[in-house]
Amino acid sequence: MNAAYEFVTGPLAWAAWGIFLLGSAWRLYSMYQLAKKKDASSMAFMDWGFSLRSIVNWLIPFNALGWRKNPAMTVATFVFHICLILTPIFLVGHVMLWDQFFGISYATLPDNVADIMTLVVIGACLYFAGRRIMQPEVRYITTGQDWLALTIVLAPFLTGFLAYHQALNYDLMIILHVVAGEIMLAAIPFTRLSHMVFAAFTRAYMGSEFGGVRHAQDW
Amino acid sequence: MNRTFPLLLAAALILAFAQGALSQQDMKTLAPAAYGKLTRPAAQFNHDQHNEKAKLEECVACHHGGKDGKQDKSASTEGTPCADCHKLKTGGKGTALTKAYHKQCIGCHQAKGKGPVACGQCHKR
Amino acid sequence: MGIAERLIEDVGLRRGVSKLTPEKIEKIVSAVITGETGARLKAYAETCMRCGLCAEACHFALSHPDDPSFTPAGKVHQTMGVLLRTGGKVDPEFIYGMAQLAYTECNLCRRCVHFCPIGVDTAYIISTVRRICHKLGVTPQYIQDTAHSHSATSNQMWVKDDEWTDSLMWQEDEAREEFPGLRIPLDKEGADIYYSVIAPEPKFRTQLIYQAAAILHAAGADWTMPSEPGWDNSDMCMFTGDFEMMGRLKRRHFESAQKLKVKRIVMGECGHAFRSVYDVGNRWLGWRWHPVPVIHAVEFYWELIQEGRIKLAKKFPGPVTIQDPCNIVRGRGLQDKLREVTRFLVEGDIIEMRPNKQHNFCCAAGGGVINCGPPFKNQRVAGNEIKAQQLAATAEKGVKTVITPCHNCHGGLHDIIHHHKLGMELKFLSDIIYECMEKPEA
């Protein structure tokens, strides 16, 4: 157990973070190079003001037409992303590890709040999965990649929840949890999860084009 | 009156030591009162069982001394509760109580390759 | 479900597909994808989370609520999605369906932009699919005919050089009975305004040239029209994917204006031509902006009204509703000016369609779809049930007139109104201005 734990929280964690950070940086860099080479006629219209205008307007729930027309999905999407990002960052257990390994300490979420947020992520994943199965327009366009992304995101939260409550075999669960989290980090640059890296830029371009060229809203 | 006070003092001292000795024997968890309400379940720790299993003879292996944030491995401090020196929050120097526990326990377990290292292995529900 | 189950026979598509081989398909697909696309397509393909929110956006999808193959993401999934996944290893029959879908089931209206949190531009992807179809030689017969006309004559309707000037002189002649001092000045150097039209105007909507001349004359404008090719601002090549021709057409148009040293180009009430001039064609040519200022008729009329240069003898009786053309509303933010102009011209209520302005539903004719001709007409009309409902709702409130400042919208709405027997009439702004303006010389 100790050796396994050492390995997944040591070398494997370094590898996962390395793949995530360097991989994302590399993907961004190569995408930028490609854009400069091939999309000059689009790049020419990139504009900070219109980019931010678009990003801000899409970050307001029920502001964009698409959000308004899909209220359930809007709620699910917003709470999912908020919990997905905040829970692991501010979880007591995780902050303890930062402190233990690097002496970094910061504010934490109360455990019962984090627990609910974890359930929200799991619930949202199930909702997304349900849509993929039940809603014809979503089922029609769903691919293996989409299931993969959903599974990769669900896994650390499900194992984390079980580990926290020490259900089933704790020793196994905590290792699975750490590995699942690391898989998620490492998968970000190379799966559909890369929208974490690219969405700001696709949104920014749309905002720039609609703002600068079309003089219209893109939300 | 001036004869009873020293007696009472002596009795109090004896009781205090005895309680200390008693509490170490009966110790099942590490949950000093300084924490108040606990965030996670108290860490499981049976003092004597642990020492027997870990073949610890020297108290100083855990009960170290120190000053101004510098650990002194030669000064034994058994009998002094951890929370006396390690405060919940440090004013810059020294190690905060939680971190002190984690460092002490997990650090040793990692070094020896034995003993609990992940949260739920000590903080059992 | 999917395009393969609703193929429509078209001579152009069939002939094109009959000449294809798998090797040729693969070669051209990869040539376009690696040669002409870059980070945009890559990012869109990768980050589209397949959430399906865009299904609510598309008039085709809303008009076929039980068929997800009409949703924006569904359309990409069946076309570019397959090409990217297979690297272009598809059979010729697949190309038939892909072309039919790309040319006739997406108007490139970009309403779905308002639905995609990530900012995927479906119109760009479908345009790229069309580009591939064009390079494969698989294009619907009717729209390809207009593209051929563009190549041969620089205008969309096979209008010969002498027919063009002849039509202008004919309209001038007619108009002088009503406005004795009216001229359609040809090739006047240094004029304030270069008035440009789409080729269907001289071909079969000549009254629009008459009306424009009347309005410009009454406003006392210093204007001209070119006698030589370049006069047609329309651009079917933009929609077939013949970007080389699109570039040539735009260059010719601007150069014709530059040759006459005019101050700016005023375009008639057309949507797609405006798109090609201010957004698409200029980019292909590597011009950030157009070299001669361009202004759409709606904005031009608005200016004339602001300056008090249009005087009305009467107002047009309402209530009316307004069709917001995607290329000037979602494409240029002219919705408020369009309403101000309408308000100026109309007596009575403006009954809005809902949703409206930049969220309005497309006419289902634009983006080259109506130009694909009769074979696809029924599918196009069926694909805009939702617009019929919008129109019917305003008709119930007494609306008889739909203000429609775009040729394609006219065509699309005309078919829908006729099919659903809504009994509404379509009007260009210039129809109404001409009808209501003061004609002191008459």
What does the secondary structure layout of this molecule look like, with pairings?
The complex is a heterotrimer of chains A (219), B (125) and C (442).
Chain A lengths: L1 H8 L1 H28 L1 H4 L4 H12 L5 H5 L1 H20 L1 H11 L8 H24 L1 H4 L4 H21 L5 H18 L7 H19 L6
Chain B lengths: L3 H23 L2 E2 L12 E2 L2 H7 L11 E3 L2 E3 L9 H4 L11 H16 L6 H4 L3
Antiparallel strand pairs in B: 1-2, 3-4
Chain C lengths: L10 H8 L3 H15 L2 H9 L11 H5 L8 H7 L1 H7 L5 H13 L17 H15 L4 H13 L7 H18 L14 E4 L3 H5 L1 H13 L4 E2 L11 H5 L2 H17 L4 E4 L4 H13 L9 E3 H10 L9 E2 L2 E3 L12 H11 E2 L29 H6 L2 H12 L4 E3 L3 H13 L5 E3 L1 H8 L6
Parallel strand pairs in C: 1-2, 1-3, 3-4, 5-7, 6-8, 8-9
Give a written overview of the molecule.
The complex is a heterotrimer of chains A (219), B (125) and C (442). Chain A has helices at residues 2-9, 11-38, 40-43, 48-59, 65-69, 71-90, 92-102, 111-134, 136-139, 144-164, 170-187, 195-213. Chain A is mainly α. Chain A has one domain (2-213): Fumarate Reductase Cytochrome B subunit, CATH 1.20.950. In chain A, helix 2 (11-38) packs parallel to helix 11 (170-187). Chain B is mainly alpha-helical and 125 residues long. Chain B has one domain (28-122): Cytochrome C3, CATH 3.90.10.10. Chain B is 43% helix and 8% strand. Chain B starts with a helix and ends with a helix. Mean pLDDT of chain B is 81; it is low at 15-22. By secondary structure, chain C is mainly α. Chain C has helices at 11-18, 22-36, 39-47, 59-63, 72-78, 80-86, 92-104, 122-136, 141-153, 161-178, 200-204, 206-218, 236-240, 243-259, 272-284, 297-306, 335-345, 377-382, 385-396, 407-419, 429-436; strands at 193-196, 223-224, 264-267, 294-296, 316-317, 320-322, 346-347, 401-403, 425-427. In chain C, helix 10 (161-178) crosses helix 12 (206-218) and helix 14 (243-259) packs across helix 15. The mean pLDDT of chain C is 96.
Q: What's the short version?
A:
The complex is a heterotrimer of chains A (219), B (125) and C (442). By secondary structure, chain B is mainly alpha-helical.
- Range of helix content of chain A: over 70%
Describe the main β-sheet of chain A briefly.
none
Structural class of chain B: mainly alpha
Q: What is the string of helix and strand elements of chain B?
A: HEEHEEHHH
Q: If you average the pLDDT of chain A, what whole number results?
A: 96
Order of helices and strands of chain A: HHHHHHHHHHHH
- The CATH homologous superfamily of chain B is termed Cytochrome C3
Share of residues in strands of chain B: 5-15%
The overall pLDDT average of chain B reads 81
CATH topology of chain B, by name, is: Cytochrome C3
Cα separation of the termini of chain A? 51 Å
Largest sheet entry of chain B: 2 strands, antiparallel
- Distance between the first and last residues' Cα of chain B: 51 Å
Q: Which percent band covers the strand fraction of chain A?
A: under 5%
CATH first level of chain A: which class? Answer: Mainly Alpha
Q: Biggest chain pair contact, residues each?
A: A-C, 56 and 51 residues
Task: Give the overall shape of chain A, derived from the CA principal axes.
Answer: globular
> What is the total number of structural domains of chain B?
1
